[in-house]
Amino acid sequence: MITMDDIIREGHPTLRKVAKEVSFPLSDEEKELGKEMMKFLENSQDPKKAEELQLRGGVGLAAPQINVSKRMTAVLVPSLDPENSAEPEFKDVLYNPKILSYSVQEAALGEGEGCLSVDREVPGYVTRQARITLRYFNALGEKKKIRLKNYPAIVVQHEIDHLNGIMFYDHINEKSPFKLAEGVLIIE
Ligand code: SB7
Ligand code: NI
């Protein structure tokens, strides 16, 4: 089981590497790792389990964060309206994900971003693209092509950054962290 002890923190060189693509069919290890990563996210979002296991809540986890430099990431974005839907907004393990196109429209989370590999708050807007077209392979090797917008699109961009050795704070304007370019959509 993956716990916080398995997650490497900023300063670890693996977080700055460009991760390697996986090939299909996946090895049993790669499949198992994907399942374990998703299980971590599920546990982290379950208040009881999170308390028990002392997990920080997470909506994504990229393999490099557990020191595996491969292009795979689990994403679990809960329903934005749990009253009306138990279905997560987006849930899958993405292998070799690639963003095929981006909207011109930019967006940033009003609260800024955090990262399980960063044990401090880094204030500031992280400007990303509001909408993306994403291609990835699932654990079965099926090719998926989907459009995401707003929060799920932001999360996937954060995760794909990990596969490229990029940290969220690399995007924050150092001198004025809350300075926004014109027209950037703020997601609350
Ligand atoms: C805020 C949080 C995340 C993504 C985008 C905005 C994910 C946090 C967990 N991770 O560190 C995953 O890499
Ligand atoms: Ni992260």
Distance between the termini: 32 Å
Helix content: 10-25%
Q: Could you tell me the number of beta strands? A: 8
Low-confidence stretches: none
Shape: globular
Order of helices and strands: HHEEEEEEEHE
Number of discrete helical segments: 3
> How confident overall, as mean pLDDT?
97
What small molecules does the structure contain? [hydroxy(3-phenylpropyl)amino]methanol, nickel (II) ion
Q: What structural category arises from helix and sheet content?
A: alpha+beta
Strand content: 15-25%
Profile the largest sheet. 5 strands, antiparallel
The strand line-up of the biggest sheet is 1-2-3-6-7
Rounded radius of gyration (Å): 16 Å
Summarize this entry quickly:
This protein is of the alpha+beta class and 188 residues long. 21% of the residues lie in helices and 24% in strands. Residues 115-117, 158, 162 line the site of nickel (II) ion (NI).
Question: Strands, helices and their partners?
Answer:
Blueprint: H1 28-45, H2 47-53, E1 60-62, E2 72-77, E3 90-102, E4 106-109, E5 128-129, E6 131-137, E7 143-149, H3 150-163, E8 185-187
Parallel strand pairs: 4-8
Antiparallel strand pairs: 1-2, 2-3, 3-6, 4-5, 6-7
Bound molecules: [hydroxy(3-phenylpropyl)amino]methanol and nickel (II) ion (NI).
The site of [hydroxy(3-phenylpropyl)amino]methanol has 17 residues, from β1 and α3.
